Amino acid sequence: MTTRRTLMQWAWAGLAVSGGLISRLARAGLPQGTLDTAVLERLVGKQPLIKRSYRPPNFETPLTYFDDSITPNDRFFVRWHLMGIAAVNGRAWRLSVGGDAAIKPYELTLEQLKSDFEPVEVIAVCQCAGNRRGLSDPHVAGVQWGYGAMGNARWRGARLKDILARAGLSNEVLEIAINGADHPVLDATPDFIKSLPAWKALDENTIIAYEMNGEALPHHNGYPARLIVPGWVATYWMKQITSIQAISAPLTNFWMATAYRLPKGKFAQADRFISQENELTTPITEIVVNSVITSHADGTHVKRGAPIILKGLAWDAGFGIRQVEVSRDGGRVWESAQLGVDLGRYSFRSWQYTTIPHEVGTLALIARATNNQGATQVSELIFNQPGYHNNVLHSVSLTVV
Amino acid sequence: MRPLLIFLGILAFVLPHRVAADEATLQRPKDPDTIRVVTHCASICHSIDYIQMNSPFLKRAQWEAEVKKMTKVFGAPIGDDDATQIVNYLVHYYGVE
């Protein structure tokens, strides 16, 4: 039987939990040096984006730009690893297809890429593995991204499996290695080359895109063609690609063997990249379920008694978003938000939630997404040294006046 | 991703840029010794904002690891003595002891 005393205990426990959640969520912030060096600047073909570094250019999309499920090309984030960024001429550009596990190597022009293969479209989220790294607690070295190293676009191109089929794959094929026109400025620096396991390269959703939201790709997003790997983090989404190699042995460069890896067992990744796993670490693969509030920033003033229409985005690795909930009491009670149009399982899913504040003061709102697998976000960071897979619940603190 | 060629960024500050003019306003190395270390090296791998962006939270051992990565993995042409001086500089201005 429930007594008054046990009810009180429950109430106090709830308060303790909620206070803890808010303080945990509020604790993380960007490093001071990151804040001091961040400015809004305009790259060629782009709206002003948050500058993280000038060279190579690493520019982040401000959260307020995400007012639609599709991210316009001129708002899409920019991420380069190396300083040598080619200005590619589409007419002179060639894509070579070969490798020791390819039977008939060949070359494609941009026109051939567009005309020789069935064009397909997919709407998919491109998210940097290190998105939100700057919010790691403790902070870790790397590009100190906030929330905006991500975007969602309608990609049009040719299936990678169709391109590979023209060459013909031998039975020994293990990985498909992709190189782009970008290059290091020192000979000694490892070129940025990445590989996919053959099974993922042959997935019908993995494409070589030559259009982004109905236009040619912007230079800073990989003109004239880039790899689209729906559901997987952006490290595999190679830009300005020039070479596709079917290989029979694992690619062993720095970018595969050392970087973009997670401690084994730390995250529940469904997709495995077995040829690249070792005893301690495994390559990062698919995106974790996540959501963000885009309509209101911390400190926004709202009026008591007037409806607040909170809006945001949710996404995952392609299982699809089942539910987004919002809590206005520190995580004790969660209420369903309304999901927007479904643009496909790899896309951002918009959502909105309406609430009326009845008291002046601070109102903290927390969003939480759950996918069709039942996976949801974490309230406490799963710390890892490279700062990947940050899907800590996003909250905003509004001021009710 | 991991930070890139942090130290060549230091090396880069004296060299001509073909990049946004605004980069010229970035903070520069402050002490003459570090400037001496860097002026005889000639490479441009990244802008120096990488350093301040990654501050102030790295401890000496972590800055040492970053320097080591830049020299051993990325091939930055920095001798051991210069690397030590660079680490001292980074820890002093951009690190935590």
Give an overview in words:
The complex is a heterodimer of chains A (401) and B (97). Chain A is 13% helix and 31% strand. Chain A has 401 residues and is an alpha+beta fold. Chain A folds into 2 domains: 228 residues, Sulfite Oxidase, Chain A, domain 2 (Alpha-Beta Complex); 111 residues, Immunoglobulin-like (Sandwich). Chain A has a 5-stranded mixed β-sheet with strand order 6-5-14-9-10. In chain A, strands 7, 8, 11, 12 and 13 form a 5-stranded antiparallel β-sheet that branches. A 5-stranded mixed β-sheet of chain A has the order 18-25-24-20-21, covered by helices on one side. In chain A, a hairpin with a 7-residue loop joins strand 20 and strand 21. The longest helix of chain A is centred in the N-terminal third of the chain and has 24 residues. Chain A is globular and about 70 Å long. The two termini of chain A are 42 Å apart. The N terminus of chain A is likely disordered. Chain B is globular. Chain B has one domain: Cytochrome c-like domain (Cytochrome Bc1 Complex, Chain D, domain 2, Orthogonal Bundle), CATH 1.10.760.10. In chain B, helix 2 crosses helix 5. The N terminus of chain B is likely disordered. With 97 residues, chain B is mainly α. Helices cover 51% and strands 0% of the residues of chain B. Chains A and B meet through helix 2 and strand 2 of A and helix 3 and helix 4 of B.
